[in-house]
Amino acid sequence: MGQCGITSSKTVLVFLNLIFWAAAGILCYVGAYVFITYDDYDHFFEDVYTLIPAVIIIAVGALLFITGLIGCCATVRESHCGLTTFVVILLLVFMTEVAVVVLGYVYRAKVEDEVNSSIIKVYDEYNGTNSNSQSRAIDYVQRQLQCCGIHNYSDWQNTRWYKESKNNSVPISCCKTVTGICTGSLTHPEDLYQEGCEALVVKKLKEIMMYVIWTALTFAAIQMLGMLCACVVLCRRSRDPPYEPLITGGTYA
């Protein structure tokens, strides 16, 4: 019965190590996705520490790949030292992922304040040229999120670009269509996106942070199962009596 339990735990453990390798790739992908998305929205953020959860999750992914390799070798060979190392590393990774979840919630709560404090400045620095990073960022966000202005398209009337251009229009990126019919003119507001960008940027960034949080939570739960199986194998092996060869035969008087 004990041997059956060990075999079952070893089978589950080997399977979990394969999952860890897949998890390593997924964690690195999620971290890279956060970096790429942050690059598109970085003008709406002043706090670079928002990227800390992404940095940690990429590091955890790399460590998890190595952990899976150690776990597979230790499980197959039933190495006491290897399995102990495996459990310790998994515990460290688990604690790190808990930290990622906490940091994710902290920075998710700060997203709205960050965007609110910087978005007006970014819109005011818009000049409509491709060489201007703020202009590229705003045009990208308005096309991607299908929005216009901060709260709505009328916010453009308070910007320096609108006052200097004096053509009673908003950027083409506010247009619902790019077929040439829409020129951004405020005399045809029905051709413009009606929703403001501020709320949508906040929503997008909060969604990204939730991806990080749920990814970390999911794989933390899997690692708990991995630690449990490794501990079962270790405990049963430590209770098993050492193997003694059976001696047959003898001398007779």
Could you walk me through the main structural features you see in this protein, from its secondary elements to its overall organization?
Keywords: Glycoprotein, Membrane, Transmembrane, Transmembrane helix. The protein has 253 residues and is mostly helical. The chain is built from six helices and no strands.
Structural class: mainly alpha
Q: Look at the structure and give the mean pLDDT.
A: 79
Main beta sheet = none
Strand content: under 5%
Main location: membrane
Keywords: Glycoprotein, Membrane, Transmembrane, Transmembrane helix
Membrane topology: Multi-pass membrane protein
InterPro entries: Tetraspanin/Peripherin, Tetraspanin_animals, Tetraspanin_CS, Tetraspanin_EC2_sf
In brief, what are we looking at here?
The protein is 68% helix and 0% strand.
